[in-house]
């Protein structure tokens, strides 16, 4: 036996800023909205839209706000999720370089920065959404509700780390997003609302599938953190879909817990459960891991699944023992904390020092020139999952074992023959006289004779 196949995709919104642009004589300085339009100018030129599907099956998108978004294609392996997500970063890095060059040409100057974090300088929160395919069943709402404590406690492993300034001084916490979710939660009518978007849009056969749309996670910089975040969730979903129960672990006050857990770097302060017991985030995560281990005990797991389980266990051990060196090249909050502490030791800067804030921004800056992540990787201070070659290839190559392959092949053929086309997650359409459209309802299907015919018609 093995895990049930599952589609996973990651959407990431990026913060955008321009540094050093010439102040125009009239009007306001170049803002994020305008910078985002510069960023997307080339995309709009070739896609005639700020919402395009790419040869790698993913989606590049600029909403009315100013946060460019990249959504990975459908993956059936969380290692592919990591590779496709990093390919999206690489695509955006190039767009930012080109937009910066254009700003120089137009005499505006300045440099565009893209930040893979979750709050911008104006205090607006934006997200990294995870998508997991579920088989449709009648008790979706209950399934979702019993997952809430998992999503709230997993930040002790997968949080991106943040400095929180308080009247009593600055402190380090697990997650930037948690503070903002806490605000959002005050008005939530169901437990799950700020954690899971319950809109029923499966991007697949609605009779068979639902898509779990998790909106509470931090964006991850380290590839290993992305791997753990999506991998541990997929493992737990397998347990739940096989009938495993988690509702003895429901939190009495999830809204408080999300904030309190983020602020307790020991992860050992108990929070109250619905059943009156008290458990810490660490104990709850140990319990989830134990149940997943019991669930998967007789199964043949893939190497990536074993890797996820090993990192999950080691992350909890690091918290249990206080020995963060066990994970401080793999989990964002610990990598970042080590970076900050080293800097402070050398400079004497306090946690709230503006130089530390800049260091943190550089941690999230996806540019290999301005940002720190690639430098940390090169120095062995941030672990890699994917090779440079794999990431480069994934800019134009879709995952080969899902519907993404059909979409990617179609987009590539249409682009090569300059044929006008319209694509979304389930449709492939040629905008010619025949308006030929193929509906791809099965996200697991990577071959389809109808799509072959459509592609053949393009080349004919
Ligand atoms: N059947 C599916 N199950 C799970 N995930 C899917 C499925 N089909 C597509 N996905 C993934 O879901 C994500 C959809 O991204 P997209 O940004 O379009 O999200 P959305 O929630 O539909 O729309 P929006 O961001 O505009 O609100 C992608 O990462 C994609 O790979
Ligand atoms: Mg989206």
From TrEMBL:
Enzyme's top EC category: ligase
Organism: Georgenia wutianyii
Residues given in the record as Mg(2+) binding sites: 11, 61, 69
The encoding gene: pafA
Pathway this chain belongs to: Protein modification; protein pupylation; Protein degradation; proteasomal Pup-dependent pathway
Catalysed conversion reaction: ATP + [prokaryotic ubiquitin-like protein]-L-glutamate + [protein]-L-lysine = ADP + phosphate + N(6)-([prokaryotic ubiquitin-like protein]-gamma-L-glutamyl)-[protein]-L-lysine
Keywords: ATP-binding, Ligase, Magnesium, Metal-binding, Nucleotide-binding, Ubl conjugation pathway
EC number(s) stated in the UniProt entry for this protein: 6.3.1.19
Active site, UniProt feature: 63 (proton acceptor)
MF (Gene Ontology): ligase activity
Superkingdom, natural source: Bacteria
Other known facts: The reaction mechanism probably proceeds via the activation of Pup by phosphorylation of its C-terminal glutamate, which is then subject to nucleophilic attack by the substrate lysine, resulting in an isopeptide bond and the release of phosphate as a good leaving group.
Recorded family membership: Belongs to the Pup ligase/Pup deamidase family. Pup-conjugating enzyme subfamily.
Upper taxonomic lineage: Bacteria, Bacillati, Actinomycetota, Actinomycetes, Micrococcales
Name of the protein in question: Pup--protein ligase
Function: Catalyzes the covalent attachment of the prokaryotic ubiquitin-like protein modifier Pup to the proteasomal substrate proteins, thereby targeting them for proteasomal degradation. This tagging system is termed pupylation. The ligation reaction involves the side-chain carboxylate of the C-terminal glutamate of Pup and the side-chain amino group of a substrate lysine.
One Pfam entry name: Pup_ligase
Keyword Metal-binding: yes
Residues binding ATP: 59, 72, 425
């Amino acid at each position: 036996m093995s895990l049930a196949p599952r589609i996973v995709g990651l959407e990431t919104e990026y913060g955008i800023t321009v540094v050093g642009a010439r102040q125009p004589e009239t009007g306001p300085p170049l803002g994020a909205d305008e910078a985002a339009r510069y960023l997307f100018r080339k995309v709009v030129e070739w896609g005639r839209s700020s919402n395009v599907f790419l040869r790698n099956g993913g989606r590049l998108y600029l909403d009315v706000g100013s946060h460019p978004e990249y959504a990975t294609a459908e993956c059936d392996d969380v290692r592919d999720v990591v590779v496709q997500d990093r390919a999206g970063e690489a695509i955006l890095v190039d767009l930012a370089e080109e937009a910066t060059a254009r700003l120089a040409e137009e005499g505006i100057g300045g440099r565009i920065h893209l930040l893979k974090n979750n709050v911008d300088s104006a205090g607006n929160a934006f997200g990294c959404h995870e998508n997991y395919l579920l088989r449709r069943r009648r008790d979706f709402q209950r399934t979702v509700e019993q997952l809430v404590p998992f999503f709230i406690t997993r930040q002790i492993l997968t949080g991106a780390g943040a400095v929180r300034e308080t009247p009593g001084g600055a402190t380090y916490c697990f997650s930037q997003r948690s503070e903002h979710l806490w605000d959002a939660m005050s008005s939530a009518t169901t437990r799950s609302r700020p954690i899971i978007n319950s809109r029923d849009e499966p991007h697949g056969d609605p009779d068979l599938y639902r898509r779990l749309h998790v909106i509470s996670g931090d964006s991850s910089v380290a590839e290993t953190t992305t791997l753990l975040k999506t991998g541990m969730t997929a493992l737990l979903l397998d347990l739940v879909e096989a009938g495993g129960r988690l509702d003895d672990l429901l939190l009495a006050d999830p809204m408080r817990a999300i904030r309190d857990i983020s602020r307790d770097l020991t992860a050992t302060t108990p929070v109250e459960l619905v059943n009156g017991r008290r458990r810490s985030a660490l104990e709850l995560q140990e319990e989830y891991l134990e149940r997943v281990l019991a669930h998967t005990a007789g199964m043949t797991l893939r190497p990536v699944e074993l890797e996820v389980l090993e990192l999950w266990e080691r992350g909890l051990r690091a918290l249990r023992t206080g020995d963060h060196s066990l994970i401080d090249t793999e989990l964002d909050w610990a990598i970042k904390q080590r970076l900050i502490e080293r800097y402070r030791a050398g400079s004497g800067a306090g946690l709230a020092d503006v130089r530390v804030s800049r260091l943190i921004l550089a941690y999230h800056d996806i540019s290999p020139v301005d940002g720190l992540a690639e430098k940390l990787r090169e120095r062995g201070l941030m672990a890699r999952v994917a090779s440079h070659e794999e990431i480069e290839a994934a800019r134009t190559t879709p995952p080969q074992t899902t519907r993404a392959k059909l979409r990617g092949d179609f987009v590539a053929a249409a682009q090569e023959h300059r044929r006008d086309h319209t694509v979304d997650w389930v449709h492939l359409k040629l905008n010619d006289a025949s308006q030929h459209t193929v509906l791809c309802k099965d996200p697991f299907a990577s071959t389809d004779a109808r799509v072959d015919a459509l592609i053949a018609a393009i080349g004919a």
